[in-house]
Design goal:
heterodimer, A: 268 residues, mainly alpha, 2 domains, two-stranded antiparallel sheet, 2 strands, flat, B: 250 residues, alpha/beta, Rossmann fold, six-stranded mixed β-sheet, 38% helix
Chain lengths: 268, 250
């Protein structure tokens, strides 16, 4: 066995165990009550926070759905505009466009939120879901523009020209020339921007002004009021996409290892 | 070709430059129906630029391009009926070999029966009938080039522009493709401009000949003129091979 594969076989389970330990801790926190030092486990387990969640007594389920909706819209807007903006930058061959796209990275989402707060008040979108989506999209579009700026290669241009000369229209160009070439990157970009919006607290708290109750807003409120059960519970909901991703990765890893061992056992 | 026959393509005073460097200088030529104009020239002499201008893929500075008497200056690449075949076989990886070849017919909304008949006949012609369901990454370089060529032919272009399409193939595959090109051009009555820097390929595939040098295109009236012009490098080539033959058979 090579050194790298031996390292991987030791390190991967260790990393998974660490991550699972964090999740397990959060689950115990969300269920346990009367947990005092030096007890290893809480005095009793109580399912009431999760019952509340499903009954939506604290508005957490609605907040999760609101966050999901916002992140999907932000992801769709920023990916679409990022593709077009990156293409325009490449066609004009201007580096300035790219430098401008880098600007939001120099500042943080919170600073951008503060800078744009006055503008959103004047536009009458402060404290609305629309305002949050617009501001998050601005930041996410900057990311997607930079992300896609190297994507528009001469190869994509050549495929586009081929489809055109063979009689294809705009839709055919997108379906047969552009999307098949960039499919993988678009998926990554959609996930990245959706996660950015899903996990964002800075913009949603400043622009939303407390009116837009996203999952992260609930989480920070629980932390501030020291509601440990609810904070752990909302953290688990917030980390749910990452948890699903990790479980998928573990599943794929186990399948690939199983396939490898089956192949090796068949070899003479 | 009879001079009384109007040309399919007429190019007059075509000029173009990139960043103040002239790439095409006053190019004039006629292309007649069902003929193959073989354009010989070194790398960077403007051959690809000429083809891309004719296909409408890049703009030009001055001159006129007419297809069957109609100016192409404001016609989009999609509506020109001129297909440009790249050096690299650009196959759609998400489509099968069959779907790649049928692509242009589907774009033109031909009926399923007609498409099936044409594509199957073409697959037989290019000897890939058993590979119709494969994806492009399962094909060899020569097979990919055959599929790209077949796809271009089945778009039934007014003019087919070939930009050194066989330059990346090995000798054997190249010979096979050259023969296939001759056969298919005859069968589908193709009018083509074939750009190459290979003398043998130009002589084998062309029905008329031209030499491109520093952005200027010289058309030869006969094969004899082409063969005897020192600028093409053919006389030196003939001399070299004659002396080599004499050495081999003293």
């Amino acid at each position: 066995m090579k050194f790298s594969s031996r390292c991987r076989s030791i390190l991967l389970p260790f990393v998974f165990a660490l991550v699972l330990a964090a999740y397990s801790y959060l689950i115990v926190l969300s269920l346990g009550s009367g947990w005092s030092f030096p007890s290893l486990l809480p005095d009793r387990f109580d399912y009431s926070p999760w019952k509340h969640f499903w009954a939506d007594r604290d508005g957490l389920r609605i907040a999760a759905l609101r966050s999901l909706g916002i992140s999907l819209v932000v992801s769709a807007i920023s990916t679409t505009f990022g593709l077009s903006a990156a293409r325009s930058i490449r066609e004009t061959r201007s580096r300035w466009g790219l430098y401008i796209a880098y600007l939001p990275f120099v500042m943080s989402p919170v600073v951008i939120g503060v800078c744009l707060f006055d503008l959103t008040i004047r536009l009458g979108i402060a404290g609305t879901v629309f305002g949050v989506i617009a501001t998050q999209s601005m930041f996410a579009t900057a990311f997607t523009t930079v992300f896609f700026s190297e994507l528009w290669s001469p190869q994509v241009d050549r495929y586009e020209q081929l489809v055109t000369t063979l009689g294809g229209g705009r839709i055919s160009v997108w379906c047969h020339a552009i999307l098949p070439s960039i499919r993988g990157l678009v998926v990554v970009c959609v996930i990245e921007t959706a996660l950015f919006s899903w996990l964002d607290y800075g913009i949603v708290s400043i622009i939303g002004g407390g009116n837009v109750k996203s999952l992260t807003v609930h989480l920070f409120a629980y932390i501030r009021e020291a509601s440990v059960n609810q904070a752990a519970q909302s953290s688990l909901v917030l980390l749910f996409p990452a948890m699903v991703g990790m479980l998928l990765m573990i599943g794929l890893y186990v399948i690939s290892v199983g396939q490898k061992s089956r192949t090796n056992s068949r070899l003479p | 070709m009879s001079l009384a026959t109007p040309p399919t393509l007429r190019v007059r005073s075509l000029s173009n430059h990139f960043d103040k460097t002239p790439v095409l200088r006053n190019v004039n030529f006629d292309l007649f129906n069902e003929e193959t104009l073989a354009v010989l020239g070194e790398s960077g002499c403007g051959k690809t630029t000429l083809l891309r201008i004719l296909a409408g893929l890049i703009p030009f500075d001055a001159g006129t391009v007419e297809l069957k008497g109609q100016s192409l200056n404001s016609v989009t690449p999609r509506d020109r009926g001129i297909v440009y075949l790249d050096q690299e076989a650009l196959l759609f990886e998400h489509l099968t070999v069959y779907e790649n070849i049928a692509f242009a017919m589907r774009m033109k909304r031909k009926s399923r029966q007609e498409t099936d008949a044409c594509v199957n006949e073409m697959l037989r012609s290019i000897d890939l009938i058993e590979h119709g369901r494969k994806r492009s990454w399962q094909l060899s370089g020569g097979q990919k080039q055959r599929v790209a060529f077949a796809r271009a032919v089945l778009s039934y272009p007014q003019i087919l522009l070939l930009d050194e399409p066989f330059c990346s193939l090995d000798g054997r595959n190249r010979n096979t493709m050259q023969l296939l090109f001759q056969d298919i051009c005859k069968r589908y009555r193709i009018t083509a401009i074939f750009v190459t820097h290979d003398l043998k390929e130009a002589l084998l595939l062309g029905s008329r000949f031209a030499l491109m040098s520093s952005g200027q295109l010289q058309i030869y009236e006969s094969k004899h003129d082409f063969l005897s012009d020192r600028a093409t490098g053919i006389p030196e080539e003939i001399k070299f091979w004659s002396s080599a033959a004499n050495e081999a058979n003293p």
